[in-house]
Design goal:
- There is one protein chain.
- The protein is an alpha+beta fold.
- A seven-stranded mixed beta sheet has the order 1-2-3-4-5-7-6, sandwiched between helices.
- The radius of gyration is 19 Å and the shape is globular.
- It comes from Prymnesium parvum (Toxic golden alga).
- GO terms for molecular function: acyltransferase activity, transferring groups other than amino-acyl groups.
Length: 190
């Protein structure tokens, strides 16, 4: 969110001749050595995962409600440490679902873990006889392209969102505006 300002290259403030020179590539994020070669595996969450997931969500200012382990998929490293999670939860509107609580620990980001979590959650959803077009999500505007690459489409207006998401959209919209962001509701491919 606010880190986007920090990513602005200072070279743009330099002399015009400097603007023509290529900007140096930033170094990759430092990742502890044990994370470099560790394999990631995905598993259904257990009851023991709910407490740590709730704690992480509270620290990240995510909605910690509706955390039932049966809905979650967990990503863990080769040592069994939780590195990400996500869930598909039913909405009160019959037959509609929300992709929610998607999180990947910072040292593990940009490695395809979030993408794998979403794809596997959707595969489980379809395997249970449900449709991707009945899955909705809320995200911040900078994430729209990422979700679009996974088949989600932004709704033209909030009025198209399921009625049961109205409160979350209203509350989330206020909070995100205070943070200088915009909340977007998306729907899975039809």
């Amino acid at each position: 969110m606010l880190l986007l300002l920090a990513a602005c290259p200072l070279a743009l403030l330099a002399t015009p001749t400097r603007l023509l020179a290529p900007l140096p590539t930033p170094p990759p994020p430092r990742v502890p050595a044990r994370h470099m070669c560790a394999s990631v595996r995905f598993r259904p969450a257990s009851r023991d995962d709910v407490g740590p997931i709730r704690q992480r969500m509270l620290r990240e200012l995510m909605n910690p409600l509706s955390l039932e382990h049966e809905r979650f998929l967990v990503a863990e490293d080769g040592e069994g440490e939780r590195v990400g999670f996500g869930q598909l939860r039913p909405l009160p509107d019959p037959g509609l679902w929300e992709l929610a609580s998607l999180y990947v620990e910072k040292p593990w980001r940009r490695r395809g873990i979030g993408t794998s979590l979403v794809r596997q959650l959707l595969q489980r959803h379809v395997a249970a006889g449900r449709r991707e077009g009945h899955v909705f999500l809320l995200c911040l505007e900078p994430s729209v392209e990422w979700y679009a690459a996974l088949g989600f489409v932004p709704l033209a207006s909030v009025a198209e969102a399921p009625e049961s998401m109205a409160f979350e959209i209203a509350a989330g919209g206020v909070l995100t505006r205070l943070l200088g962001e915009r909340l977007v509701c998306m729907r899975g491919r039809q």
